[in-house]
Amino acid sequence: MLVQPIDSRPRQAVWGLGFRPFFLGGSVFALLAVLLWAGVLAGVIAPSPAGGMLAWHRHEMLYGFAAAIVAGFLLTAVQNWSGIPGLHGRALQGLLLLWLLGRASWFVALPGGLLVVIEGSFLPLVALALARPIVQRRLRNNYPIVGLVLLIAACQWLSLAGWLRQDELWQRRGVFAGLWLVAAMMTMLGGRVIPFFTRRALGNMAPAPARPWLDRACLLLSVAVPLAFASGLADTPNIGVALLFGALFALQATRLVHWHDRGLWRVPLLWSLHLAYAWIAIACLGMALWHAGVALNPSLVTHALTVGAMSGLILAMMARVSLGHTGRPLQVPTRIAWAFALMQLATLARVVLAVFTPLGLSLAALCWSLALLLFLQHYLPILLQPRADGMPG
């Protein structure tokens, strides 16, 4: 694998690869954003971002928080895939600055068009940075990842167009389509790394059995779901959409069964991944039931996906990637295991306990915040310091 020469590395380690600034920035932003949202729900504070707090919350947890972590992960992984040095130095600083401007733009009096340009430029630039080494090395297996990033960017533009038009329907469709596209990306990347990580961590060096039909079917249906949201087909209960979600639930559950090994429950870096991925299947089942006419609150199902699957996988992947790409052993202390557990408790509080008492929302925000605080406490110095093995990155 090609690496950048020693003398080409930035003086500060944080600008060496994309995972460092975006994992840090995304985590700090998510912590502040959830605390702000919890304060609004409690009536303690009343900020006034452009478009209102609900529009801000929907947009920023997806296109602010999740997009930052996805960018950090992919901009790091593409170096491994291609052997070409990943985005670093001033180019990485510029991309982070654009992301930061996007977060601030909601609270600054900007012309609507300028806000849309700032917000909507980040993901296309990430896709461009990914596409160059992938196309240069002709890594056709990774072309769909670039396509997914561009589709997520298109959904963000749909949401932003709705914000400009003051059309809540367009905003919702853009957010929910983008959310399920992130789920499609988690499905694709999860299929690559979760069985590999599981077998390797448990000492099984043999390759996982190939099930290309299962991987392709999961990806195909996972991309069909956001198309249903973007087109408006999923706005109201629909038996066709129910069947789509039901089939996707069966496929995701089948994957989990094939990946399972009893030994994974002894390793926090493994059970955190498996439990988070399980929430994708649960969210699919919940959406299937709602579209079939069962009296479920779709917001609870959505938060099973956003808190349980998306945030759970983000936390677990950040924990592992940050160790692997800084030359450290793939082991976490007890406090990080507690962070994983707290994210699961946050999901249960938001999805289950909130049905019975408003305290579920407060408990979910508390557990989420504690999970991210524990992550930052342990990983802040790791992400700021050079690699432990002296290698670039």
UniProtKB/TrEMBL annotation:
Keywords: Membrane, Transmembrane, Transmembrane helix. InterPro entries: NnrS (IPR010266). The chain crosses the membrane at residues 22-50, 62-84, 104-131, 143-164, 176-197, 217-233, 239-257, 269-292, 304-323, 335-357, 363-384. This is NnrS family protein. It comes from Pseudomonas oryzicola.
